[in-house]
Design brief:
The chain is α/β, with parallel strands linked by helices. 31% of the residues lie in helices and 16% in strands. It contains 8 helices and 9 strands. The strands form 3 sheets. A 4-stranded mixed β-sheet has the order 8-4-3-9, sandwiched between helices. Strands 5-7-6 form a 3-stranded mixed β-sheet. The protein has a two-stranded antiparallel sheet with strand order 1-2. β3 and β4 form a beta hairpin. The chain is globular.
Length: 261
């Protein structure tokens, strides 16, 4: 579990424990003259407009190793969305609050097939009956059974549930069903078999030496027009000092390093 100690301020907390700016009346937030992920906010603002290239997979893995958020985009022909992703073991209440603020708020927890089996997390609908547009493998939803848990919906409660899912000592009886976090069962073979955010999350956990469980949610357009895509995801990443990559680049990296599946 992360030992990160966020720095509380009147304005809030950014993902890795540093301050972010005042909340605007439209519900969005702007970086203050502080630091985000160790980078001056003014530098981030300039980078957001001047440098909209994707980050390398190597640098994205390195960031993920530290417990930082990353943003991963799938193909324009698929969902064409950018997901905010964090290792579940490093998912603090502050990170959960940041995720809820900037995403759809439906926090899911991708995990390996072996872990889904060991925690007795069956599919939400029977095998062969999944009619979700991309066949996302939702299991039954869960809340952690732990000291301090309340209704399960708060940022603190959902962070606790994600961390419990990543706990090597977790048992099936450590969760109540249904709950407010939605585990997603990754496909065997990872992104080389299914090019989805679920599989990408588990791949990044594995590559970063983390427990193969993540916390994930889709970024939304701050103007309320829909999902955040393409350049908007790149600008958001630069604004907050978050690495941004694509699933296609991850597949290419894995096939170069490990071959096809």
């Amino acid at each position: 579990m992360s030992t990160e100690q966020p720095i509380p301020t009147p304005n809030g907390v950014v993902p890795n424990g540093t301050t972010y700016g005042d909340t605007k009346t439209n519900g969005t937030s702007q970086p203050a003259s502080s630091h985000v992920n160790g980078i001056a906010a003014e530098t981030l603002h300039a980078a957001a407009t001047a440098d909209l290239a994707f980050d390398s997979i190597e640098s994205t893995i390195a960031a993920f190793k530290t417990g930082s958020f990353i943003i991963v985009l799938d193909a324009p022909s698929r969902e064409n969305e950018g997901d905010l992703i964090c290792p579940a073991q490093d998912f603090t209440p502050e990170k959960a609050a940041f995720m809820i603020r900037h995403t759809s708020g439906l926090i899911c927890s991708p995990l390996s097939p072996a872990l889904a089996h060991s925690l007795h997390l069956p599919q939400m609908v029977p095998l062969g009956k999944n009619s979700e547009v991309d066949g996302t493998a939702y299991t039954v939803s869960v809340d952690a059974l732990a000291d301090g848990m309340t209704t399960g919906i708060s940022a603190c409660d959902r962070a606790m549930t994600c961390r419990k899912l990543s706990d090597p000592a977790a048992q099936p009886g450590d969760f109540r069903r249904p709950g407010h976090v939605f585990p997603l069962r990754a496909r065997e073979g990872g992104v080389r078999q299914r090019r989805g955010h679920t599989e990408a999350t588990v791949e990044f956990c594995r590559l970063a030496g983390k427990r193969e469980v993540g916390a994930i949610c889709e970024l939304v357009d701050e103007g309320g027009d829909g999902m955040m895509r393409g350049e908007a995801c790149l600008a958001f990443g630069r604004r907050w000092g978050i690495k941004v990559c694509t699933i296609e680049a991850l597949v290419e990296f894995l096939e170069t390093q490990q071959g096809s599946v």
